[in-house]
Every structure is written in C-alpha cells, then in structure tokens.
C-alpha cells in the first residue's frame, strides 16, 4: 500500500464520522444565490467550494475585521462536483480548484463531475455567475490566470492542460493551447496519481504543473509573449516523489509541497524551464500536500497529521521550521488574506474552515471554526 494511502487511511474513520454529523447541514443545489441572512456589505470575503456531487456550490462568507466569518450566501456553480477514487478528505486531491483573478475581479471554480469551469464576477462578498464552459478534458481540478490567459488542469485520462483567452469577462477556449500530459493516472489509488496543480510563474512566461505519483515530476511549459504554448514541457522527475501544491517566494522561486517526502522543496526556475533544487525543509508531519505564503512565511497543510506547519525563509532561501499548529480533521487547501493578517484552512474531514490570525513572527492564533454546508471532502478556498 502506498505511503500516502496508509496515512490517509488512519483518519478515514474519523472523517466518515464527521461526514455523518455534518449531513444535517446539507443545502440543496441552486442556480442562483441562496440568501442566508441580511448582512451589511463589507467588501471583504472568503469563498469556499464544497465540491458537492449533486451540484457544486461556492459558499460566500463575510470576513469581519477580527477575522471571523459569517455566511453570506450559497451560489450554485451550474456544474457538479466529483470524487477521485480512494480520496477521503480531499475529493479533488489538488490545489487551486477555486482561483481569484485580481485584475478582472473574477472567480474561477472547477466542476470536476461535469468537466466544466464556472466564471463568477466578484463584488465584495457577493458573486454573479457569468459563464459555465467545458474544461477541455476530464475531471478539472485546478485553474490559474495571468493577464487575459487562463489555464485549466484536467486530472483524468492521463491528465491535460487547456488554455483559454479571457475577453469581456468570458472565457474562450483556444484549441491550440491543449496539451496531453501522458501521466499514469489509472494506477490505484487514483487520488495520489492524478496531477495536483497548474500555476503561472509570477511573470506569466511559464506554466508549472505538478504531477504527484502519476509522473513523480514538476513539468514546466514556456509561453511566448503572444501566448504561444511550447509543445512539450521541461520535466524534472524523481522516482517516488509526489509534488503536489505549490507557491512562489518573494524572489519568484518555486516552492512545492511533496506528499511523500513530507517537505517543502524550493527550486530556482531557469529561463529554459530547467529547475535547480535550492532547499528541502521537512515538516516532520504526514501528508504534507498544500502550501500558502505571505511575505517570508509559509504554511504547509498536513492532512495525515491534522496540522499546519509554519516555516520562515531566510535570505539564502532556506526554510526554518517554526512549529506545528493543530487544525480540524483532514487539513487541506488554505488561503491567506492579501494583507497577510489571516489564514483560512479547509479541513476536509471536518467539513469546515479554521481561521487563524497570523502574527509577525509567523505564529498563529486560532480565531474560529466555521462549518461549511456539504463541506466534507471539499477543496477550493479564496480569501479576499
């Protein structure tokens, strides 16, 4: 049995128990917003995707000045959620399934069960659904945007990426921007072998894909100024590696969470797409698969340990482990507010979001736990 499978199995029973307790919170799928209660329009929000199989939903929360959350409305995406084989707390087994486009004030959500992408216009803590479009592949799990270009990562049938042009607030698929990844996604358990994330580099001239156990690799595509995508990626592979979630540091270096090594790996990306390993910092925890950053502080989610590991990066790009902070069952995707003051962590086993205040030294103070309707196994979170 693969390492990550054993680790997730330890929390399966707890996750199932939580799923039963949260069933009473189920909300029927809707094509429009479901008002929860009258609320003042504050302009600060946290959006959480529940990946509901019967009908995917994005739950909008008003974010108060103290970091606490209040449910504002539930928005149907017009598509269905999906569940990868073997997954317990992370049904998409990915990072970036809900992505905010700051420049255009748009929110992109994947509908894995219906192979579509939903585009929402964002106004404070409110959403307006503008479009539902086919993802160009099977089981979309991650989406990234830069300028007028948007790319989607599809997880099944060997994996693929599909590019889109954004025009007048809507996506237009570019057939020439489709690339098959040829990964071993058919191996069991499925959720450890499907690709994990697609992301533009900060300058937007390269596209990074993590493949987890399906390829044991980080794959980098080059994009020209005109948007032309290289036919093949530059592949950096290591037997047994499970590169999963990713982010970038202040110097635009790539930082990847590896779910087998249980570590954050820092790479320098060269212009030709090659990568050079700069640092490897173990979390000391289990199933370290997701990562978010603010300034020189990084927060890694450990689904097998129900913790967040805190790191601080020095000028030489070395990461120092600061300690672990407990969360609810099944720590998965996370998001940090633009001002760097608050961290919101999805707990896929508990079907909830844990809110923390981030202090200058990188320590965390728990604020609250907020239940998410049908949130067990859900992934995708954006804090604004």
How would you describe the overall organization of this protein?
The strands form seven sheets. Strands 1-4-3-2-29 form a five-stranded antiparallel sheet, with no helix packed on it. A four-stranded antiparallel sheet has the order 5-6-7-8, with no helix packed on it. It has three helices and 29 strands. Mean pLDDT is 91; it is low at 1-32 and 34-42. The protein has helices spanning 3-10, 12-22, 190-193; strands spanning 34-35, 45-49, 57-63, 69-76, 98-101, 106-111, 116-123, 126-134, 140-146, 149-154, 160-167, 170-180, 197-200, 206-210, 217-222, 234-237, 243-248, 254-258, 263-269, 275-282, 288-294, 297-302, 307-313, 319-326, 331-336, 342-347, 352-358, 364-371, 381-383. 6% of the residues lie in helices and 48% in strands. Strand 3 (57-63) and strand 4 form a beta hairpin. It has 384 residues and is mainly beta.
């Amino acid at each position: 049995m693969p390492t990550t499978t054993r680790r997730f199995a330890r929390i399966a029973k707890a996750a199932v128990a939580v799923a039963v307790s949260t069933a009473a919170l189920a909300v029927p799928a809707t094509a429009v917003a479901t008002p929860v209660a009258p609320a003042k329009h504050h302009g600060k929000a946290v959006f959480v995707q529940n990946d509901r199989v019967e009908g995917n939903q994005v739950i909008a929360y008003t974010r108060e000045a103290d970091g606490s959350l209040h449910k504002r409305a539930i928005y149907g995406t017009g598509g269905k959620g999906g569940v990868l084989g073997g997954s317990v707390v992370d049904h998409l087994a990915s990072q970036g399934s809900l992505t905010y486009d700051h420049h255009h004030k748009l929110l992109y959500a994947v509908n894995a069960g219906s192979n579509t992408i939903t585009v929402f216009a964002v106004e404070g803590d409110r959403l307006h659904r503008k479009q539902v479009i086919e993802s160009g592949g099977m089981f979309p799990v991650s989406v990234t945007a830069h300028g007028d270009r948007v790319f989607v990562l599809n997880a099944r049938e060997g994996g693929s990426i599909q590019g889109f042009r954004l025009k007048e607030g809507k996506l237009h698929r570019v057939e020439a921007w489709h690339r098959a990844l040829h990964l071993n996604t058919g191996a069991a358990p499925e959720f450890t072998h499907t690709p994990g994330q697609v992301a533009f580099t900060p300058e937007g001239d390269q596209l990074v894909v993590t493949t987890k156990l399906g390829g044991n690799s980080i794959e980098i595509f080059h994009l020209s100024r005109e948007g032309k995508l290289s036919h093949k990626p530059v592949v950096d592979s290591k037997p047994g590696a499970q590169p999963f979630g990713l982010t970038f540091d202040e110097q635009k270096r790539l930082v990847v969470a590896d779910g087998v090594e249980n570590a954050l790996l820092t790479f320098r990306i060269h212009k030709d797409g090659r990568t050079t390993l700069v640092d490897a910092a173990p979390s000391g925890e289990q199933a370290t698969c997701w990562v978010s950053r603010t300034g020189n502080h990084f927060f890694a989610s450990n689904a097998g340990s129900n913790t967040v590991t805190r790191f601080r990066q020095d000028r030489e790009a070395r990461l120092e482990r600061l300690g672990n902070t407990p969360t609810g069952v099944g720590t998965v995707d996370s998001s940090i507010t633009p001002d760097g003051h608050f961290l919101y962590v999805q707990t896929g086993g508990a079907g909830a979001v844990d809110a923390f205040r981030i202090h200058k030294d990188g320590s965390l103070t728990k604020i609250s736990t907020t239940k998410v309707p049908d949130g067990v196994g859900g992934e995708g979170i954006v804090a604004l």
